[in-house]
Amino acid sequence: MNRRNFLAATALASAAGLARNGVAGAPDPRRKIEAVAFDGFAIFDPRPIGAVADAVLPGKGTELMAAWRTRQFEYCWLRTLTRSYVDFWQVTQDALAFACATLEVELTSANRDRLMDAYLHLKPWPDVLAALRNLRMAGVRMAFLTNFTATMLDANIRAGGLEAFFEARLSTDQVAAFKPDPRSYQMAVDYFGMPRAAIAFVAFGGWDAAGAKRFGFPVYWSNRLAQPAEELGAAADRIAAGLETLPAFVAAGH
C-alpha cells in the first residue's frame, strides 16, 4: 500500500471517528483563539537527522532518509488502524530497520544509536523563539500535541531552552492513537477545556493539517518544505513557510 492509499484510509477512519464524536464542521470565525497546540516538528527542525544519515551511510543518506520517513509515518497509521500501538520511538526504530532492509544496507549498532539519538537533540527552527514570545505576551496558552514520546519532547525542549513556553506535553502515548486519529486531537480540547474553535493547531505535515482541520480546529500549516496540499478535502486556514505570521493568525481569530 502506497503513502496516498494510507492517507486515504486514515482519513476515512478519522471521518468515522468524527461522526461518532459529533464533531462540528468549520470553526466559528467569531470565536477568539485562546490556545495553540503545536506538532513537534512545527517547533523542532528534523533536517540535521539527514546530515547524520549522510555521515553514517555516505552516498545513500538521502535514500535512507526518504525510506525511513515514509515507513515511519505509515507504521504510525497502520498501528493506529490495527489497534497495535507502540510509541513513536519504537515506531522510528522499526522504520529504520525496514528502511535498511529495503536498501540492503547494514548499520552497526553504534550508527543505529547515532541516528536514533539525533531525535533527542533537535534544535528549534530559527523563527520559533520570536513567535512563541509574541504569543506568550498576548496571553495565549501553548502546548505540544504530537506523536513524540514524553522523553523525546523533554529532551528537545531542554536542548532548545523552551521550558517557559509550553504548559503541557500532549503525547499520543496518552491515548494510544497516533494523529490524525480524532482521539489524539481531542487531548487538546480536554486539556484546555475550550471549544475546538478556540484552539489553533500548528501542523508540520500536510496530512496533519488536514486531520486537524477535519477535527474542527483553526489550522495553521507551517509548510517549511514547500509541499503541495494533500488531496483530503480539508484545507488549512493558513499556509505559511514558517511561524512568522502565526501570532497575527492567532490575533485575527484565524
Describe the structure concisely for a colleague.
The protein has 254 residues and is an alpha/beta fold. The chain has helices spanning 3-21, 40-43, 47-56, 61-81, 88-103, 109-117, 128-137, 150-160, 182-192, 206-215, 246-251, and strands at 35-38, 44-45, 123-124, 141-146, 168-171, 199-203, 219-222, 238-240. The strands form two sheets. The chain has a six-stranded parallel β-sheet, sandwiched between helices.
Comma- or semicolon-separated keywords:
254 residues, alpha/beta, Rossmann fold, 2 domains, 6-stranded parallel β-sheet, two-stranded antiparallel sheet, 11 helices
Write a structural description:
The protein has 254 residues and is an alpha/beta fold. It folds into 2 domains: 7-44 and 122-251, Rossmann fold (3-Layer(aba) Sandwich), CATH 3.40.50; 47-120, DNA polymerase, domain 1, CATH 1.10.150. The chain has 11 helices and 8 strands. The protein has helices at residues 3-21, 40-43, 47-56, 61-81, 88-103, 109-117, 128-137, 150-160, 182-192, 206-215, 246-251, and strands at residues 35-38, 44-45, 123-124, 141-146, 168-171, 199-203, 219-222, 238-240. The strands form 2 sheets. A 6-stranded parallel β-sheet has the order 5-4-1-6-7-8, with helices on both faces. The chain has a two-stranded antiparallel sheet with strand order 2-3. Helix 1 (3-21) runs parallel beside helix 4 and helix 3 crosses helix 4 (61-81). The longest helix has 21 residues, at 61-81. The chain is globular and about 55 Å long.
